[in-house]
Amino acid sequence: ADQFSKFVVRESLPFGTAIPSEGVLRLRHVANDGIIFGVDADPAVSLILPFLLMIATLFLCQRYVGFKSPLLNTALALFVCGGLGNLIDRLALGHVTDFIDVGLPWASVGVTLNIADLTVAAGAVLFVVFVVNSLREAESRHPQPTSP
Description:
Blueprint lengths: L1 H11 L5 E2 L5 E8 L10 H22 L5 H24 L2 E8 L6 E4 L1 H27 L7
Antiparallel strand pairs: 1-2, 2-3, 3-4
């Protein structure tokens, strides 16, 4: 879905064009040389850092947790697949195609992202949910003594 959506944007929406021209949510064809959500970074960093994060996350999860939790596995799959979607762009094009433009009317900030970015973000949120659930389960198995 990520690669297909980027292909459609590159083929049908001229670079820099936004539809609609104004608004909170629009389609806008841009090239992202930085890292997720258009954060500026050196090209080498934007290529290597996401790859290292994927490898480190998988290694640490395998080493300390294992892959027994469907929630963790879903989080990791989203995180890795989103990262790979953007890695394919970086290797093939030298940049990532972004097209979902979100502007906040009350702030002077906005982001332009793609399906891979959303997938990485969803994976990160599910990972946090997994960690919180794991901590709660550990606490319920081994409650901390209360002070008198």
